[in-house]
Queue: 2 jobs
Job 1
Amino acid sequence: MQRKIIAVLLSVVMLFSICTMAGCRRGQKVDNTVSITGDIDLGDDIIEISFTHTMGAKLQDVLNTHIEEFNKIYPNIKITHQSAGGWSDINGQINTEIAGGNPPNIAYCYPDHVAMYNIAKSVVVLDELINTEYKIKGTDERSGLTAEQKADFIESYYNEGLVYGDNKMYTMPLNKSTEVLYYDKSFFTEHNLQVPTTWDELWAVCEQIKAIDPECYPLGYDAEDNWFITLCEQMETGFTSAEDGGQYLFNNAENKAIVKELREYYQKGYFTTQELYGSYTSNLFVETTDKRCYMCVGSSGGASYQMSNNDTPDGTFAFEVGVAPIPQANKDHKRTISQGPSLCILKGKNTSDKQVYASWLFVKFLCTNIDFQAEFSMASGYMPVLKSVTENENYAAWLARGNGYEYLVAKCVQVGIDGRDDYFVSPAFNGSSTAREQVGAMMLKCLSTDAANDAAVDALIEQAFKDAIEECEY
Amino acid sequence: MVESKHQWKAWLYLLPAIVLLLVFTVYPIFNTVRISLLEEYGAMAEMGLDEGEYFNFGLGNYEKVLQYKDFILCLKNTAILCVATVPISTILALLIAVALNSIKPLQKTLQTIFFLPYVTNSIAIGMVFAAMFNIVDYNAENILNSQSLGIINNVIQFFGGNPISWINQGSSYMANITVMIVYIVWNALPFKILILLGGLQSINKQYYDAAKVDGTPKWRVLTRVTVPLLSPMLAYVIITGFIGGFKEYSSIVGIFGDKMGPAHDPGLLNTMVGFVYDSIEKDRQGLASAAALILFGIILVVTLINNYVIKKRVHY
Amino acid sequence: MSNVINSNSVMQAKDIHMISTGQKVRRILAKTGTYAFLLVMALIVLFPFYWMIISSLKELSEYRQAIPTFWPQKVMWGNYSKAFSQANLGDLFMNTLYVGVVSTILSLVITVLSAFAFARLEFKGKETLFGALLATMMLPGELFTITNYITVSDLGWMHTFTALIVPFLVSVFYIYLLRQNFMQIPNELYLAAKVDGTTDLKYLWKVMIPLALPTLISITILKMMGAWNSYIWPKLVANDAEHQMITNGLRNAFTDVSGQADIPVQMAAVAIVSAPLFMVFLFLRKYIMQGVSRSGIKG
Amino acid sequence: MKVVLENLTKIFPSRDKKAGKEVVAVNDFNFEIPDGKLIGLLGPSGCGKSTTLYMISGLQKPTSGKIFFGDDDVTELSTENRGIGLVFQNYALYPHMTVKQNILFPLQNLKGKDKLPKQEMLERAYEAARLVQIDDLMDRKPSELSGGQQQRVAIARALVKMPRVLLLDEPLSNLDARLRLQTREEIRRIQKETGITTVFVTHDQEEAMSISDMIVVMKLGVVQQIGAPQDVYDDPGNLFVAKFLGTPPINVLEGTVQDGKVYIGEDAVLNITGVEDQDVYIGIRPEGLEPAADGALVCHLNSLEVMGRDSSVVCTNEASLNPVIRAIINSDIKIDAASDVVRFDVKPHKFFLFNKETEERIRYEVN
């Protein structure tokens, strides 16, 4: 019986390989460019648009009210939306859907995801849609973006759509977050400490804090990969490039020196990270009695985690939390990482031009509507992408709120808005997500692995970089 | 067996199953074989190809899998997990099943408890296990100065042992693997207990009376009577255990997260299926298919060996 | 302790007394040991479950604490109502039930017919076919996902219950299980039925199915459990509001904008979802046990 | 080794807790089994005979009462320490072991000072096998043996450790008719040769009668009668015992005793003394009816079955509780098969009276 199984399996394989020679091709490449030759005619028929995102229930409520608003203008565009779960969920799901030829029309995205979708050439190039001067048939509305609309976008956010190495626009920013420095303002005031603006200052402050509280970690930094990428960007030492389909530039002496320096500070106990600590560093930050940290670099969208259990929404604080931009390496070349969802329009084999136009109109609506931007920001703690949102009265009032839970959220948003000229996004290409994973792993290895002497440390770092680059280039 | 002149009848009965299997199992297998032979194949890449372009046909994917620097590591992890967890979980399940079968009060309650993990969502359990072993703020000089040692270390301390780092920095490969073994064994227990207990309850009680009359010690009853009479069940549990063990992946994600290893050495515990998943995620289905088929070959060989060994010992 | 078995040895009353006391002590020790072992194992098995329950009752900030607490400082029953209200539980439940029931019934029909053919009928290539089927169990199912996804979308089944039901109707494992069970039923019964002129189907219905009932119930439960726990596939092919399955609904309902989950509420949801399955097991345990025990004993 | 059962009682708690009824499986059993005898426990199913056997084996604990092996009280002693051999109804041979391994198994369990060297174990196994004449089948698996051979293996396994008492549970019930005859002789022979006190359980009275030194007839947990098979047959204590023993079974009729005469219907069949006037059950053994031209009992003749030496006269009588009355007569006695009527005389020592309420035997003297 066993022999029979093997025989059958082998014959199946052989039979099959013969038929493979033919190399039957599935599917057809979609044309991901749009050419507009006249006013856009949406007709009167219902156009169905699907939208996949990662919004929770609260944000979906905001979305739903604005879909209603949108439908007042475009009654025949029917939008159905669904949450795919978390970020890796949505990426995996859309990958499969693209491979199957049936992606949603609009998707939440990060640049790394878009780089993947681009392999299939499924992401619609937005340039024509943005720049066209044609109108929507039957209205006075320009179907592309007006000059004012374009100018209203915070430039660095807007430019995120262009990080794919081919100078084409693939995404529109929806709402953004960044990394900010949370610090214990009460402690800083009490001990007369200066909030650091550069890394050198930061390490100096760490030393001071360590002298006051030897048990503590002065700094908690949540994401190792972000840290490394940010440092590369600030010091212009090179991380990756999207040129020529993607290059890995991080394996260089400068970066090794950066990591080595970080290792020294880590060994001195100046900081910890989420992985190294074994729990969220925000837990250290909100701690008031046990071991704690006095500064914490985390997402501006995670402000609620930086409040201790004893804090209440009505403003009883264990200590006052201050929010500041993250330290810089060079004050003349400020760089801060930008995160948060953008929107892309996807095209499958069955996607009609009308659907693409309709999708664009919805994307445009979400990204340029001040009310939506404001409400979304208030509900999520993310930052709006339009400069004019701060002129919205409600929003301005919200930002100025003096206390309570939302105070911190608003403060983060404010810091984010203030730093809007400094944002960067690392280049995206097929493999950019691997690079991010690998430098994160490399950081962990370099910081925490035991090494007997200086030479061993160098060897360790050398090896970790080598492993990371090999894995990237595999 | 009935000599049926109407062979078509048998095929008729099988028709629905065969049609569905052809469409949703056999065809995908064929497709996997095909894809594994297309160098650098990716499902999305295929969508993006220009007219007339296509992937090269050849064994490039297989070569590439074998050249992967951590291929041996993945294989080693998979093998260790298999070889360790299958016997441990089987023996433990056997002991529990035998013990359960030998008691009267509380039997049903305990039986239900042992089945509980089967209906408990696996997402939840992975998080729980990770939390149980997790050390918060590992202190290299003196582990006791760490902020929290985790419940497992607390238990170890309670019994006078020294806490060790299980999954955090400073943890050894041995410790990591041990955690994985504990978790996988825990996961595998309910099904095995269920099968073995079912088997035990179908064994004629007179064999035990006979053994009792002969004054057979408990241990000998277990090894000479119970185990042989249970051998078909045991064989089933062992073979499926090996097959499942070779497919181990999600349990490692459950404990170590996507980085598949402790903080100081991500990827240390990667397995074959982990590699397959990774490749699929990166739109390298060609590589994934080749790796999966290599794994399939290994499973097939192991199963055949298993069958061969077990056939000699199983009494039907 | 001397063991008196040989008829030639003469027993004294004292010996007997000693032996019987020794026996009692040993029996009690053995029983105690057995219970101790079982209880310790039960605790180990229960612990993660307990953890899930207490986690579901914690506040998010407490859950995120570095040093875990063994009992929620503030018991948040609200997590459960939150889980109920945030996810559209009623619809999710009905969808899941519908998919579960329909796929179970169809799957049973297909499984019974195939198992019957493999157990009772004689046809060319039977052994080979069966062996090949078993071999398919060795492949990681993830490999099939993309191909099946493409198939389903080519068939136009996207966002339909059909896509959720049809691809997984055939389980080689169930066919195997039931075939084993059918093989235990004496062939004479079938021959007798043939002599009486009973058709195969009638025989199946009247004889085989009643005799294999425990196995069929086990399969039903496993299948329902599958519908309950399925996650990846439904997410791909039918994750719209009208067709969403319970696990998908519950998992997605509690994530914030950054894709982070409110884990305590999610745990509450998981507990809610696990409860019906648990009840089913509680009530049908006897049948499950029988079903399992009957299927494997004969190779 | 004699076995004494003293006030042995076994009560099973009810399975169904709501019903709350206990089942008294064995009620106050007293008996002394003499050394070296073969005892048959006999009764219909559910009479408690197997329970009694299991209590002797120690597999079940008595609710009350005592069990002695010789002078030793073994009531509290567990099975393995009693030194018994037990043959199960379906033999309980380990299917995964060969015949030799099955027989060796009990010996391998011995420990301490009883432990035997390998060679001796083998010798004893072969000895036991020779005794039951299966020494040429030692390397087979049980599934490769016939029912009778399996039975012998089971006996060999029980005998190999030289038990003080051998217990057999329905030893012949799984065998076909011919094998049964042969095997019961075999059991008798083995018992004689070994001289081991042996108790066996059966529901087949013929089997019990043919080989037992003594039989114990039980009904619903209560011992009905104990004695040598022929004695019990000839002198049943009550209607149940009378009905249970004998093939063809005893003829039971309704009758009355009036003025020293026993009437069946209108026919006065026997003159007796010492019995008050009353309605009675009458039991007449088939061989207790003697056709006679002027016989007192008049029956309607159905058929005549000649079976060689004996003939069976099948007839009916309105008073009969059985559908037919059967008489076994010497074939030399001629009966007119064409006749409608047959008349019998009764043999007093095959003619029993039973109280209509208690079904106890009513003793009488023949006038």
Job 2
Amino acid sequence: MDNTPLLELRSITKDFFGNQVLADVSFTLEKGQVLGLVGENGAGKTTLMKILFGMGVIHETGGYGGEILLDGELVTFQSPFDALAAGIGMVHQEFSLIPGFTTVENILLNRESTRYNLLVEVFDDRMRTLDRDMMQERALKAIDLLGIKLEGDMLVSEMPVGHKQFTEIARELERENIKLLVLDEPTAVLTESEAEILIEAVRNLANRGISIIFISHRLDEIIDLCDKVVVLRDGAIVAEKPARQTSVEEIAEAMVGRSLEGYQPIARGERLTVEPVLEVKNLWVDMPGETVRDVSFTVKPGEIFGIGGLAGQGKLSIPNGIMGLYKAGGSVFFEGQEVPLNNPAGALMAGMSFVSEDRRGVGLLLEEPLDWNIAFTAMQTQNRFLKPVLGGLIKWRDDKAIEALAQEYIESLQIRCTGPSQNAVELSGGNQQKVCLAKAFAVKPKLLFVSEPTRGIDVGAKKLVLDTIRRYNRENGITVVMVSSELEELRSLCDRIAIIDEGRISGVRPATEKSTEFALLMVGHGRKTPTEV
Amino acid sequence: MAEKHRLRYNSMESIKGFIQKVGWPRIIIGIFLFALFVAAPFVEVKVSTSISDTLVRFGMNGILVLAMVPMVQSGCGLNFGLPLGIISGLLGAVFTIELGITGFAAFLTAVAITTPFALLFGYGYGELLNRVKGNEMVIATYVGFSSVAFMSMMWLLMPLKSPTMVWGYGGEGLRTTISTEGFYLHVLSDFLAVRLGSNFFIPTGMIIFMLFICLLVWVFFHTKTGTAMTAVGSNPDYARAAGVSVNRMRTISVMMSTWLGGIGILVYQQSFGFIQLYMGPFFMAFPAVAAILIGGASVHKASIYNVLIGTFLFQGILTMTPSVVNSVINTDMSEVIRIIVSNGMILYALTRVTKSGSRA
Amino acid sequence: MNRKLLIRSAVVLVLIMVAVFLFIIGKGYTLLLDNKDFEYGGKTYEAFEMVKVRVDREEPIELYPRDRDMVMVSGKAHTIGITVYNKNYDEIGTRELKFRLKGKGSMFLLSMPAFGAELEPWFAPFKTPEL
Amino acid sequence: MKNNKKNKKNVGTPWERFKRLIIAYPVPALFIVISVLAIPASGFSIGYLVQELSTRLARNSFLVLSLIVPIIAGMGLNFGMTLGAMAGQIGLIFVTDWNIIGMPGLFLAMIISLPLSILFGYATGKILNKAKGREMVTGFILAFFANGIYQLVVLYGMGSIIKIGNEALVLSRGYGIRNAVNLVNVRQAMDRLIPVKFLGINIPLATFLFIALLCFFILWFKKTKLGQDMRAIGQDMEVAEAAGIAVEKTRIIAIVISTVLAGIGQVVYMQNMGTLNTYNSHEQIGMFSIAAILIGGATVSEAKIRNVFLGVVLFHLMFIVSPMAGKNLIGSAMLGEYFRVFVSYGVISIALVLHAWKRLKERERARAGLGLQGPSVGAAQEIEA
């Protein structure tokens, strides 16, 4: 037995244009070990895996620092195909399967067994014909490794989700030289029983000497399955422990537990006694990847209400559903009036406004000037910035008023731009976010939904954006519902925070509650306690 | 010193900016057209006739090109279904002649009859396009083709009586070309027309009418609805989030485009002198598409400015190239040049990397 | 990789050779069958009273004096057979020959009297007179 | 739910099964109905129709088959097949000029078309790769554009820059190919190679054998690695790319194959027609072939060999009978003419609309995620308990 670990990372660092995302990440992984990699969204897990795989985006942004050793040898992968050739396989969170192909065809995608014929000499190897019997045999062998049963000729489009996940894993296993398998949130889409089977299969693989990096938010699974747990936070390893010596609580605490500079959770308890301004009952929203099933909560006037939770658990769909952007059901009352669902205009006219998490997709008219971006919603829903011409027959756009409005917000929000007529696409992320905020403020809302306000913007802009939200809350009395993946951001700004887990509220706590409590709610430990609203 | 340097730098930048803004294809075509005008006198082509012809064609085709704008702006892509609008115009024309109205009244009647047809067709066409988002252009093309073929059957079957239109003896249905003479031939063109000598003529009335329609469209895009339409084309998700009904805006834009197509063909006929039925409208979308693209529009952005510049450049080339090239090499290559220039331009626009395809 | 290039070049070469081969065997020629007096070496070979000409496997063609007919053939190698008759249409002789067309052009004039007399230049390329 | 549906397929009265068949294949069903109604009205004898259909099957099938490969590769209907047809025609012009007779002439024309088709196909593939998601409209415009280039070469280049010896081919002005080229040398050379008469009907056996050869090639091709790659790309380009399949290259190959086959197909087509309409023949061929394969039940994303033959039969049946039916029913042959034009374009429109509509719905369903309809009350209670 030699003692060289299968994989060794030595002080991996990476920055994107000066923005440090990984700092001095080192760990080792032995042969046949399962390593659990956990961390909040944005902690650097994905980037780390991208580095390991030699993804193009890493090279395009200036490469990485540090060394990767595989079997004791230094490796630098130029592309994912190099990594695959070296025996590393990865199963991504999204399925990467051909819907009209069978299990076998998918497992052997682009690695089919073929037979020679003469045309190969003239054209190329792709003129070889498929050897279906051989393919069947190889695929079944890979499936056997997992210790489960899969139908070889079932089409992916007709498979249950679990089968798809197994097909993906089998595809990686089918590589002859597979040594290391990275599983990114493999159980996220599975039912409980399917997840159990998968965990068992992963154990099987480890017993056969394949090392595994297992990324998951389900901490119970991690404790249950892994030999070792590595916790990433803000691009650095904050804990590295054998799984037996740690607990869900300990990991959860390590994942979160940092505070934002200049902000402290504060208690404004006296406000919470007033009649609610927003009342949400049994809301369900059908938003892909972010579904919520049954959510009820109330928001008090003047409050900043936070909604947190891990990615994919459904927090984003709450504002999107209430604002009519995705199909939703249940009932929503604003100031005692029922708000029509599935009708963006209805929600806007009721006095609510929304800053979308999808800034470039939903939030902005990228190829139109700033003033349009800011004034458009107000113009369409409230008939402002219009001049009646010919006795009101024509509602003429008042370009001067629009420009003045934009100028006002450019100054008050410090939007860095050349002027109101600059196209939105040319601004930086932070300034684009400010434009989105300006758009939302321009309709003079009584309640503002802000979704992931600081995602993808630099630190300076982050603070400005959060300050702005707080200022408008304090000075203009706008009630705010803020959705964010960053717990500390929520704790710093909000009065109360609801945590969404698996499409339901797992708990609502005042922001002054300990981070660990929220972290536990996030990873599913609130599921067993009755929901308090 | 530094100031001077800055100035130079700026002017370099502004030239670059100008090229970027105007785009290479337009600059090349513009220079080419200019060269043709310069070369014309040397090869004994009368410049006055050329300019006059260009202006006439500019006025004739302007509104047909304008019919692209609403649909492009609302994100429906290039209006390859222009024949549908043209058909509504043809219906207007045919019924007007059946009623036997003459003169300027005839033109107004034709516009009046065209309008309901155009709105009806446009509504159906718009509703259809709302169901095939992302594939509008190829479907629009075939909707145009099918409607032309369908109307060909209708022209045969329509029980119209006017002797100007039905075949004299032994024929069936309407004639393939019907003269507008005695009805509304040149009613716009001759209004305030300027004539200098025998070969220079400015169809003032027609150009004024065309500019007037352009103005209407321009005004529309400055209203609340017009602004919403532009936003829908720019980012449908943004517009929806702002409470705008995306499908409704798209339908309105298609109705507008169809109506403009109908009016456009009436203006065309009053200048050209003939109503072309049957397969006449079949390929009419392509020159209009090419013209607006030459004017600088893209698959998802177009303006009145693009219409005016594009129509002038495209029609200028169509007028000038044959006359100049023919007298140089004694060959009539106009048709081939038209095909290559117009389709080459469309091809260029389609293969430009645009994000509009990725967004539903 | 070189091997592939070699094989591909060979395939292209074979294709070109096939094309040339097709060109040769498929090239169409017009044979003008002439039954006129033929002058050669100062001597006149008189036209036959009647001659049946058969080119390849086509139907025989009857030619009387001063007749000219034509057949379309493809390729250069052909057989020609004639049967010569006298005034009373009695058979007086036959001759058959496999031959290759030589010379440029797509039209050849075949003189029957010359062929009957086994003269060397019994066929020659034919130039269409300028119209 | 799903199982229920699956079981339904094989149950029910024959009538119900028949109804499902019609719903599954609406376009062919519609055409069968039209034909059944129009055949008696046209007054044509069955013998005549069978003869005509046999001729047209031989004439068109090869061309229509050329559409299959790009459909497999997810590139939709190859409107760019016109370019292949042009290559075939150029080959025919040359063999006519060189006076190559019979089958050698046909094969030589095919060989000449080959490098041209490969070149055109490569260019088409490159262009279509730049217009992903808009392949069809781009291919369509490309065909128009190429037509301009073709005219430039054939109408102006040939006889002046490119030498054409045969005066019968050249326009009286001294250059440019005539509008109609008489293909006397190769006329029906393939059709008549193996003359067969069966029940009084002439069957162009050699042509059918040639077509059968292509069918076998396509069937075989689907089983190759390249065919498998194309299927993968056709279904999900990103997944295929991630699996290491050279997507763009494969798409180009698909178009090259289609273009080459279209070139050969055009030669087969023209030998039957016997007269080349230099400036029109290729234009119509794209539209007619595409209409035919769609009428045969193919869609923008799926095509099988049987769609080709069914499509050619149904489309041409309508083509033959509609003018006469129009004349006999309404007294206007022109009406039938326009009717068939309308049907050709109409069927393409319908097929495209159905396809786009389906895709849009699929996209919307994908957006709607897990198909959730409301809170699952049972599950909620479970947690509360």
